[in-house]
Each structure stands twice: as structure tokens, then as C-alpha cells.
Amino acid sequence: MFGSTFVKAFAGAVFVLSLAVAGALPVLAQPALAQKDTQRSFVGSEACKTCHADVWSKFYKNPHFKSMASGKETQEHTGCESCHGPGGAHVEAHGGKATIVAFSQLEPKQVLDNCLRCHSQTLSRANIRRSLHTLNDVVCTNCHSIHKSQAPRFLLANLQIELCYGCHADVRSQFSMPFKHRVNEGFMTCTDCHNPHGAFPPTWRMAERPHMMDQVFANEEPCLKCHIEKRGPFVFEHPPVRVEGCEACHYPHGSANSRLLRRPVVFTMCLECHNGAPGFSRTGSGDPVPVSFHDLRSPRFQNCTNCHGHIHGSNVDPFFLK
Amino acid sequence: MKAAIIAVLSAGLAVAQQAVAPTPEPVGPVRGDNTAEYNIVNSFETGYRWDSIGGNLDEYRSQVNYGNGVRLLGSSLSVNSRDGHGRLFDEILLNTQGLGGDPYESAVVRIQKNRIYRFDMTWRLNDYVNPGLVSAGQESGNLRDTRYTMQDDDLTLFPQSKIQFFLGYSRSVQDGPALTSVGGFFAPTLDTTGVPTVRDARNEYRIGNEIQFLGIRLNWMRGWQDFKEDFRVSPQSDTGEPLPAQLTNPYHGTSPYWRVALFTDKKWFSLNGRFTYTGTQRAFVSTQSGLIGGLAPGLGGLQVVTMGTGQRPVATGNLTFTVFPTSRLSVTNSTAVYNVRTEGNSEFLQLNNATGSFQTLYFLYLGIRTITNQTDLNYQAAKWLNFFGGYHYSDRFIRNVLNSPINYDQTSILIAGLFGVRIRPIPTVTIVLDGEVGHANHPFTPKSDGSYQDLNARVQYKRKSLLLSAYVRTDYNNNSTTLTAYSSHARTYAANASWSPLRWLSFNADYCKLHLDSLGGLAFFDSGELLQNQYSLYISNLQTGNIGLHFAIGRRADLYAGYSHVQDTGDGRSSPTGSGFGPDIPEFQRAQTFPLKFQSPLARLSVKITSRVRWNVGYQYYGYREDFFTGQPFTTDYGYRAQTGYTSVLWSF
Fold first, then answer.
1. Pick from B209, B317, B532, B618: CA 20 to 30 A from residue A79's CA?
2. What DSSP designation does B56 have?
3. Is residue B595 reached through a cis peptide bond, with omega within 30 degrees of 0 on the bond before it?
4. Which residues of B16-35 are buried (b: 16+ CB within 10 A; e: fewer)?
């Protein structure tokens, strides 16, 4: 079972990659932006501060200043010219965006290539080239401002939630709900659960969605970083928790329903699965219908978790009663 | 010039603020103060926060929870060496929020010396309350009134070198009274009171290294995570008398893990691989004594002990390869393997004080193995035109052993394709259209993705300080079988506008409508009669809007006004019963929709007294109302009206 699936999956992968690599060979020698620039002359950062005094005056606070402070880097890896390219032509022309690498003039892919010359060397950015942000032309300078950062860390162009909400207005609305994770209140950030630089494919559910989820404890769903008491293992697991993940019953961002549930009344949510429909559940014979004494007209049976309190898993009771 | 910089910063920081405090306006010289070899920028905001609650206090505490008292609402400190050669450090950053009693407190610290070390610490506290809310005018036993503290410490040695070392320590503790879905007993037949105090503690230790050779980075991490949960409850009678009964439940375990990754990024390809293994083991003992009938032998009291061990080893592997055959094309192939098995035994011992004892041993096994392969292409046909697409394949195998020799195995294969186009007709406008269609042949639950399709459209206009965007998304899922139906339609419409036309004026507004209708098959007992082939149709029409306006009044004052509104209009009915789709039972009809309203206007005035001192005052109102659960058969009114505010001094020295 395992072997045949694995072979099928890899066969497709190898075929696609072979085509791609074959197509790549003729263009490997294509000159990159930085290579072209090295043919010009470096002038050093001292020359830049003559005109760009406002940038220079506070650059010592910039993380990129490390390369200058060390004094050991080569010209193309230090100071202004490490990102903006050789400044000789720019100085001779007395400025101008056409004579230097001006990020405002670059295509998104060029911005990404320029930054990744140094910043690809971090595990958290190992998937940046295949991330949904990159595919949608959201690259480094969309969120980071090298010279006008307004956040204490990571040179963010604005507060993190404002950056994310700027495009994800629907997510902002979810965090405005009565019940939500406390992102707007400053207790959490988007990056507690997401990796905006692209994540490894999730390993829960069918691995198809959601995208850009970070993983905690090496390979777990990020919810478990805080809600660790629900991690288990439990002798009696509620299988959807393990198979489908927390999103099977909860909205992770925010909800109009208490406990971020997908339904306002508990029993309707449970009954949508526990309807005996064949083909589902761990046995394939359907999730069991509540037995006959569960008279759902009675309020006591409308909150399933009143009795089935350990609904995420129990060590003691197969029906999650305790 | 300085005033202009401050005004611009204010405009950027103040839009769309959700909580009225702390004050985002900066104070003091933007460039800070120089002392010897360092530059220092700092600000501290100290003030008094107040609240006045009408209506359901428990609901307010569960949703908002700001209280009265003196607070260090926020603080910011940065110390930077001016030449990058500080003696012990080159940078210190410290940011705090809400210290001194807010329900959401945090502190973030970074200390680093270039090329030698970098230390990051994040500390957070959340005071969380849930009085057993289940929304629908009912109350449950799942109470919670806990404080959750979490701290992460990470030290990186030689952070800019080709050989780096990582050390980390994390700790989280949750304690407080709770009857909750994990970590507490609930015995509905007991006519007693006594809420256990839960204490969950996690300690995690990490050590790792990253090394670069031949242009490849090898990163490994070894971690140990210990978890323990201990609590005991001694029930009391309604009059507060201790009962001859006791519940205890220690639950301890450890999760050692490995993570090894290799990655490289070259001009024409990018490659990464990762392997992880986590071995988790938990041992538990659960004891109950004297809960039924007392401890006296003649009364038949029971003493119950359940104990055992659970294991859950998880192994994952990832291999991702991206090639860039031309500057316009990228092809990515990613393979992921996930393997988990949960197994354990639970030994049940029950001593009847009058008659004797018996023993039952349960053993359960749940194994999941998923293999996924995804291929994505991104092609830039022209400067203004991009195409992207992908093919995803997942194969999931699940094995169950339910305390019997019979194995229940099942396999599900998901195949999905996605396609999108990105158009930039003019530099200021971006249009993205994409869609995904997928089918799983054996979904695990009736609500899982079966045959689904997602369609997205996004338009964005950005010119200087003006940003306009609109977004539409539809998610349709159909998972019907021969005997039951499940169909879910979700549609999202969102629009956003932000504008900072002048240095003293900024504006932000957004609107979102979330429509959801889900049809599900039901079977249940109604007064002893099994009703089958029933349906529920849950309909939600949630509309949210946020608006924020900030403007500076001269050079002295900043005013911010904002409003947030959430409203679910439900399915349009005006009465909780008597309409809707599905069983003609009032309890069902009422559960098919959930109209409510939540609104929160706020305003804040910040006045500059001197260049280093600002005085601030703010007000925020929270109003919450559930339309159908007030005065109905379930008479708990969860609505509340909360007036909150603060006044503070923001200063820099």
C-alpha cells in the first residue's frame, strides 16, 4: 500500500521535474541583476550619505548595519551597495533611479531575488519561492520597509496585523467577532500560527489546506502550542480531532459562537456527523446516532458536551464522559 | 521636521485600532538620545483603566474582560550601539503591554551583540473566562476561569556565521478553576458543587545547530517537552459541607523530538528536505472514591481507579524542489509524508465496597498515514500577466483497532487542481482570479471536504497613500452519500479602503459579508422515536464593518475615532421558531440561525503637553445582543453593555 502510492507520487514528480530541468539548461547562464551590476564600480557607503543623510543618520539601528560594523565583508556584501548595487554610475549621474538598483522600480521577482541573496539562509524561509505570497507577487518590500520601518523588530512597514489585514480584510472581520483569538488585543500575532514566508505542506487533514500554516513541536498543528492539554495522546481519541484537525468543529480566527464553534448550538454541530450515514467514521459504518434516551427536545441533551465533557479525548471513558 | 515625522508616524499607527488603549502615538524625540556609545529611545504609558458593565457580566468577561485599575498600559525601550561595537550588547529592545492587571499582558525582549549572540524572549499572559457559554441561551458545565502564561526564550550563538547554535526554553502554565473538556471531571448526576483547580504545565527544552557547507544548510533541532496536569477536587454539598468523596487525575508525560532539515537556494533551483520525529508518551491515573453511596461498605459506595499509558509517535518527511527554467517560469514539486499512530491501554478497576470488584482493560489504536505530492507552476507571460496552476494528490490511510481483533482500515485519495491568473493592466491595479477544484473519494466525516470548489477574485488599487481592495471568495462543498446529504456554501465579500491624504489625516474602512448555508443530514431520537432522513439547514449572514479616522488637531493633539460593527441577520426570520427548514421541532428551528449584534465605538484624544509628555484619554463601548435568546424558553440573556475607558500619561525620559 505504502510502496505503490509512494512510487506513483514520485513518478509524477520526477517526470515534471525532468521536464523543468531540461528546459532550464539553456538559460542557466542568464545574467542576474547583481552580476550585471558588479561590472560597474563600487564607491562605498560614505559616498551615499552625502545626499541620503536622512537614511544614513539612523542606519546604525538597522539590522543591515551589522555588515558594515564588522568591517570584514566584501564590497558587494556590505553597506548600501550590498542591496542597491554599485553606486559609481549613480554618483556620476548625480542621482537618478535609472543608475542604481532602486527597489521601487524592480519587478516583484527581482526584489525577491535581491533579498534572498542573503536571506534565503534561514529555515523559516526555506519555502518562500513556492509560497502563496510569492505566487501572488507579495514579496519582501510589501511588508518590510528597510529604511522607514515602524515596528520594533523585523523591519516591518507597519504593525503586523495592519500589514496582514491590509490584504486579508475578511480575516480582519473574523477577528472582530465577539469570540476570537486575541490578536487585536495584542496577545497574539498572525505569525503565532502562520509563516508568511511559506510553510512546509501541512501534515494534518488531507494536507491540502489551509496554506501557510506553521508547525509547532516539529510537526504538530499550531493550535497545540497553546492548547497543549488537548494534544494527548488519549486512549480514547475523538478521531476527527486527529484526522481533520481542530477546524472540523472550530473557526480558528473568530466566530459569532462561543468557543469559536461552527454552530451556535452544540447538538446541531454534533448531529451533522453523528447521523449514522454509512461510509464515514473510524469504522466506516457511520458515526453513531445518539441512543434513544437522548431526547433532543429536552434541554439537557442539547448541550452534548455537558456530559461528553472530554470531547477532545479521554483516557477513562470511550464516550468521553469523564 | 520633527513634528512632521511624528505626525506621519501617528497616521500610520493609528488606523483601525480595535482596543482603545494603549495609545499608539509616539512621544519624545524620534531619533532618541545619545549617551556615550549608545542611542536610547523610550516611552512609557501609565494610566488608569475603568469599566462599567450592565447586563451579563460573565459574557463580558468572556469576550472583552478589561477591568479597573492602574496599569502600565505600554512601554517601549530601544538601546542601540552607535558603531555596532558595543561592549556587551549592540541592541536591546523591550516592549510591554497591559502590565499590572490587564487580561492581555505581554513583554517582548531582544538583546543581541552583532555576530556573537541574539536572545529573544516573549512572555504573555491571558486571563481567560468562560462561564460555560454555549450561546444559545443555555448554560453548560464547561466552566473556565484560568490564567494562561506562556514564555519563550531563544538564544542564538553566532547568528551571522556559517555555524550557528540554538538553545531554547519554553514554559506555559494554565491554572485556575475549570470544568472543561480536557482537564476536569464532570459528573452530571452529582448534586454537589466543587470546581477543580486545573494546573497544566509545559516545559520545553531545545538545542540545535545550523551549519553551511558546499552552499547547503543543515539545520537540526533536538527538543524535549514535558507536560503534566494535576488536579484534585473534593466535592461539597449544596450547603458547603465536605462530602466523603474525592477525584484526582494526574496526567504526566514527555515528548522528545528531532527535526533535521537540509535546504539550499540557488540561482536556478531551490531545494529543501525535512524530517521530524516526535515520540510522545503520557501516563495517567484517575481515581474516584465515595462518589456514589459514600465510603461506608454497607451503602455500596464505589472506589474507581483507571490507569494506563498512551503513546503517539509522529514521523514526517518533506521534500520540496523548485526549478526556475527561465526567469519567467518556476516549477515546484513538493512531497510530504505523515505517519502517526496513537495507541494505549486503559485499565479500569472498580471496587464496590459492598460486593467486590472487577477489571476491564481497553486497548485502542488509531494510525494515520498521509502521502501528499503537489506540483505548482507559475508562469509570467508578460510583465502584466501571470498564470499559475497546480496539481495536488493526497493519499491517506487510516487504521483502527477497537479493542477487538478486527482492524478497520480505510483509504482516501484527494485529487485537486488549481488555476489562476494575475493581471496588472496598469501599475497601480492588480487583479487576481483563481480557483481550486478537488475531490476526495472517502471523506472521514460527513462535513469533510468531498467534492469542493473554491473560487477567488481580488482587485487592488494602490497609489501613494491610497489603497482600495475588494475580494470575493466562494467555497462550495458537497459530500452527499446515498442515505444522507451534506452541502455547504460559503461566500465571502470584502472591501477595504485606507487613505492618508495629508500628514495629519488618515482614514481606514472595511466591510465584509460572510454568508454560510450548510445542509446536513440528521437522525435523532425525539421522545423515544427515531427520526431519520431529517435535514438541518443552518444559515448565517454575518456582516462586519470597521472604520477608523485619525486626525491631528494642530501640533498639540491627536484625535482618533473608530467604530466596529458585527451583525448576523440570520436567515431573515423575525421569530426563533415557526419557520426554517428541517424538523418541525422548535428546538431545531431555533438552532438553524443565530442573529446577533456586537458593536464597539471608540474615541481617543492624545494631547502633547511637552515634547516628552502626552496626556491621553479614551472611551470604548461594547454592546452585545443575541436576538432570539432573550425572553424565549431559554431565558438567559447574554447581552451586555460595557462602558470602558482610560486616562494615561505617556512620557519619555
1. B209
2. -
3. no
4. bbbbbbbbbbbbbeeebeee
Backbone angles phi, psi at A134, to 5 degrees: -65, -45
Q: Give the total residue count for chain B.
A: 653
Ramachandran category for residue A218: left, alpha or beta (phi over 0 → left; psi -120 to 50 → alpha) = left
- Which residue type sits at B316? T
> How many helices, marked H, and strands, marked E, lie in chain B?
3, 31
Pairwise CA distance, residues B392 & B131, whole Å = 43
Nearest C-alpha neighbor of A231 from the set B361, B200, B231, B176:
B200
Quick one: DSSP state of residue A29? T
Q: What is the pTM of this model?
A: 0.88
Lookup result for grid cell 487613505: B499
Per-residue pLDDT of chain A (322 residues; tens, 9 = 90+): 444 554 554 454 444 444 444 444 444 333 344 444 444 688 888 889 889 988 888 888 888 888 888 778 888 888 899 999 998 889 888 888 888 999 988 888 889 989 988 888 788 888 888 888 988 888 999 999 999 888 888 999 888 988 998 888 889 989 999 999 999 998 999 999 999 998 887 767 776 666 788 888 777 889 988 998 888 888 888 989 988 889 899 999 999 888 899 988 888 889 889 988 888 888 888 888 888 888 877 777 878 887 888 889 888 888 888 7
Separation of alpha carbons B52 and B60, rounded Å: 11
Of the candidates B581, B584, B557, B566, the residue with the CA atom closest to the CA atom of residue B627: B566
Residues of B in contact with A218 (CB under 8 A): 221, 223, 257-259, 276-278, 314, 316
Q: What residues contact residue B568 under an 8 Å CB cut-off, 6+ apart?
A: A256, B540, B541, B542, B543, B593, B594, B595, B596, B597
Output the CA torsion sign for A222, B132, A181, B154: negative
Q: Give the angle subtended at the CA of B650 by the CAs of B648 and B653, to the nearest 5°.
A: 145
Q: Are B151 and B168 in contact (CB under 8 A)?
A: no
Contacts A277 to B, Cβ<8 Å: 446, 481, 483-484, 521
Backbone angles phi, psi at A305, to 5 degrees: -75, -5
Task: Classify strands B329-352 and B385-402 as parallel, antiparallel or unpaired.
Answer: unpaired
Question: What is the SS3 assignment for B580?
Answer: coil
Identify the residue whose cell numbers are 488519549: A234
Write phi, then psi, for A98 (nearest 5 degrees). Answer: -80, -15
Say yes or no for a CB contact (<8 Å) between B311 and A226. no
Partners of residue B378 on adjacent β-strands: B330, B388
Q: Distance, in angstroms, between A45 CA and closest chain B CA?
A: 14
C-alpha of B47 from chain center: 29
In DSSP terms, B61 is beta-bridged to none
The set of cell numbers assigned to B406 is 478486527
B158 is written with which cell numbers? 553566532
What is the C-alpha to C-alpha distance for residues A249 and B22, in angstroms, rounded to an integer? 34
Residues 212-251, chain A, touching B (beta carbon < 8 A)? 217-220, 226, 228-237, 239-240, 242-244, 248
Q: How far apart are CA B236 and CA B248, in angstroms?
A: 15
Instruction: With beta carbons less than 8 A apart as the criterion, state whether B79 and B69 touch.
Output: no
The answer to whether the CB of B342 falls within 8 A of the CB of A237 is yes
Residues for chain A: how many in total? 322
Report d(CA B358, CA B363) in Å as an integer: 17
3-class DSSP string for B178-227 = ECCCCCCCCCCCCCCECCCEEEEEEEEEEEEEEEEECCEEEEEEEEEEEE
- State the SS3 of A82-116: HHHCCCHHHHHCCCCHHHCCCHHHCCHHHHHHHHH
Disruptive mutation site among A203, A214, A301, A302 for chain B (greatest number of B CBs within 10 Å): A203
For cell 520597509, the residue is: A145
For cell 508525560, what's the residue? B253
